[in-house]
Design brief:
By secondary structure, the protein is α/β, with parallel strands linked by helices. The chain folds into 2 domains: 212 residues, Spore Coat Polysaccharide Biosynthesis Protein SpsA, Chain A, CATH 3.90.550; 103 residues, no CATH class. It is 43% helix and 18% strand. It contains 11 helices and 9 strands. Helix 6 packs parallel to helix 7, helix 9 packs across helix 10 and helix 9 crosses helix 11. The longest helix has 22 residues.
Length: 333
Amino acid sequence: MKKISIIIPVHNTELYLESCLKSVLNQTEKSIEVIAINDHSTDNSLAILKKYEKCYPYKMKVIDLKDKFGVSCARNEGLKVAQGKYIGFVDSDDFVSINMYNDFCESLEYYNMQIAIGNFYRVASNRVLNEFYISPEENPKFCNYLKYPRNIQVESPAVWDKVFSHDLIENYYFLENHIYEDVGFTYPLLLKAKEALAFYRKDYAYRHTPGSIMNQVGNIKPNILDILYVCYNSQKVSEKWNLTQNQLEELNKTFIDAILRRADDISRWNIKEKEKREYLSQMLSISNYYFPDIKNSKKCEDLIITELSSKQLPFYEENFKRSIKKAAKKTSF
């Protein structure tokens, strides 16, 4: 068994892919397998992957998908073949510090823990920064989600700055064909693990590309309701695990907060106010059906007052059943 499997979904990132692969393949942790999933790239990405697979035959495996299935599917394909004791994820336009996986894995083994949470910094899309900031606090802190389940609300849902025990993940996969997949994957696992190690060091370099879908502030995202599908599905899966009532309640609150963050995104879309109110009203109505506690949230109340306004509140209520019927035709609940 390898110490760690690093899963890298790849789609048209030829400009940054070699930087990513070098940072992962040259880790000080030598017991490593790199699983790169080519998600139907149309640029030179596959050729680059094949070149590195040939150079590192005992470290690297390439899976070539014959159609574009999305990042969730690509990660799931990696999970199906991963052999490592631990699992890490890297996006193919990012890169990591040379000691990241050695230090994370050693600490997880030493403290007998199942999740290590890292830190990150942003890199401009047209340049690479090689120096990594190291906090004066070298030792990780303990996050107890069993005793303090509310702590998950301050954690990022991103999977790429974390390392998970393979045993913890078991047969748990990303929800495919939806965006915001990290929200539904990470938060339940944090609670399932009960504790995590949090590193202050910034070992992960996240490349900020303004043109990417997730960074297009103000643009309409037709699939924004995916946040509801992801949260609802993950909530139902988590109910089958051995979580306490407090943990389940905090998970529900965390999902509600994630949904309202997306509603807040709608409030910043560059569209007419009437259209914006209709989007918000529909989203909150559907959310209220699957997450009834959302109506008691202060953030939800603020959205209704500031964005929908008191005049729109009757519309919000009257539109409820109509929105549910409309959503039911589109969802996979």
